[in-house]
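Re: Re: token formats

Sure, here are both.
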Amino acid sequence: MKNKEHDHWNGKSISPFTMNEKMSVTQLVDEIFDGMGYNAKRLAQACHLFKSMIDENSTVCLTLAGAMTPVGMGGGIIRMIEKGFIDWIVTTGANTYHDLHFAYELPVHQGDYSADDNELAKHDVVRIYDVYIDMQKTLIAQDKIIQALTSKAAEKNKFPEKFSTAHYYKVLGEGVLETAAYPDKSFIACASKNKVPVFVPSFADSSVGMGTSYLPIMANRNSDSKDLDPCDFIDPSPTMDVLESAAIVHDSMINDIPRGVLEVGGGVPKNFLQQTGPMISQIIGMECPGENYVIQVTTDRPDIGGLSGATINEGKSWGKIPKAGEGNVVPYLDATVGIPIIFAYALENCKPRKPRKLGDRLPEMTGELIRAARINAE
């Protein structure tokens, strides 16, 4: 059998790029990166794919791993929310916690990654690589703010018997909008204001989870009992997180709306978003092809079993994407470099979209998913 003929020379011809003093981000991406190889080309493809998601009016999810907000990433997320380019978010508790420092003008400074950590600890300086945070003036102060906002919301009965992390952060964001000096610097406040759900599936793995777990202890501090009153728990439900996130995907399916995701890193946020397809198809038993478009910006290798390095294409076998090799790209880049360029390219090339306000529709969408699941089980 003869090998199928292949035109090896149908790609763009590569030439040394030219630059000028007044290049825009669009020119940098389209005229330089797109004509190169390696991760410059992948970054250009990611910019174009993110634009396609927006232009096709896809339901777009941002997944945000690690701790990106301490270096200022929240500002870009705020702009994406305000322009209607991001419809829902899955992130870590660390990103939500550190995001709030800026709303309350708590100290966060550039530092030195090679500093003596023993010396830093003596001076109450907490280090995240080359970022310095003050233990007392920032972390302890932030803990008290979050506990106060949560307690006040509980007193006003803003937490139902069962609620998701998206509901918790909606309520917390409302508190930030009311009390912070600079709520415009918080993506949590911005998401709450614009009805963008923010899920934190690893809620307990953060200072927010630590702080809320402390509240029932203090609520009964004058009691002789060593037991805690369950009524005092602020306890987001993992079940509600799974159902509400799957409901967003299901709603896009039944309304024939494409779905896209921009993944910053990997970890729990990446997998939580990508499990929505298997939740609908594998568990509920209704056909779901997964996400139509996926961009992941990561530096992790795919060959050592780490979730952050898991390729998008292998998700085909799990039902996380419709077809391997199509509609996805992985630039292997530091997210603090790649993501601002993707955001800037979208701002220069995409028209603002009308916000979907999925947060307002979560109860309705979840109810529809439950109804459809029960009918499918008959």
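Second one below.
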Amino acid sequence: MKPIPDAPEASLVFDLAPERLSRALQVVLGQPDDAYLHWDRLRHLKPPADLSHEEWWLALKFSRMSRRMHFPLLTAKNGTGLVVSRHARLDAGFARLDRLLAGQVVLPEAARNESTRDRFIASSLMEEAIHSSLFEGAVSTREDAKDLLRSQREPASRDERMILNNYRAMLRIREMARAPLSLEGILELHRILTEGTLDRPEMAGRLQTPDDPRVDIVDHRLNRIVFSPPPAASLPGRMQRLVDFANGEDIDGHQYVHPVLRSILLHFQLAYDHPFHDGNGRTARALFYWSMLRRGYWLAEFFSISRPIYRQRRPYELAFLQVESDAQDGTYFVLQQLDVLQQAVEELFDYVQRKSQAQNRLRRRLRDQDDLNHRQLALLEHALRNPDFAYSHESHAQSHRVSLMTARTDLLQLVERGWLRKRRSGKRMLYLPVEDLSRRIESAGSAHRG
């Protein structure tokens, strides 16, 4: 992505003639700022009334400055503190997420029941691991990646290692969220995320130092540097301030910092500081999840932000450039991430609804066979859609977070019913759906009903 021009500095507003400033403020204050336009877009639009582009922009900036929240612990390379303007879209987004992610939301029974919720969590952790890796350049089909995570087999490539590392990091975050953040915790996450994937293995879990070549963000299509991160010598201090911000109270000095806002800004600042040789984006998104779980947003375990980011990476990358080019106005990134979160939550609810409906349909076909547990029902529902899929003790245990002994019992019971068949592959025993699974299930249901 090519660089965007720096926005005119807000202080230039005082260079306007008093009558022009008064006129510009009168026009701007009478119009909504819903789109929260950046200068790079605004300069191509027709200004309102009789204003010039510069007058329109400076009056808009003057208005935004009066609503700013300041975050002095999070700074740019030149020391400018990150700011966020209070905005109706932010307030509405935070209120909506409070209802959905922290309150008593209405989810289907399958996701609220402790006996089945682990399966939804495991699937969501897999989705986040896969798409976070794909965003960073890993190459894999979604089904191959899920097979890797279910079976816990040894990765066959760097890309598979990246996906497995992301999954293990997401599991570790669940444990880390019980305690305050530390620099050691961030380094541990980075080590988990990058183990076996770096061209310089010794850089896993280690901040860059002045002796290391600093990694710029480059648009290879244009062969142009898009962003140069802060000097490596400043990283220890910057990381300590990041940790202090992560562990801060909701009432921070004279202002209230919404927990979701704090989580989003952690994501931004780690990516901005770019403290590692590689894996900065993955670590930044991991910190977002730590913060959300730490602050009580338990449903964050169930959704993937990397999936919508992966699908629409340009708005994500553009938001970083907009912040830096407009005096560290983090509002652009926060608004973009609220859109991502909205998509992620909607996809979560759609997913849970589809899975619940599929299991209900299957239960209706098997309603007289009450001895089937929810794990077996989930496997049969998956097998009907994936007739060539091979299950193993390890994959079934990983998908449902149960012991290998429990997984083996589940699978053997389905073999006894004639719905799965066994096949040995080396030292592993695989279980495959029988060719006429749907007919056999229907016959079993009909027999019981008769």
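Residues 371-449 form a domain with the Arc Repressor Mutant, subunit A fold (CATH 1.10.10.10). Strands lie at 68-75, 81-85, 217-219, 224-227, 251-252, 255-256, 391-392, 420-425, 428-433.
- S.
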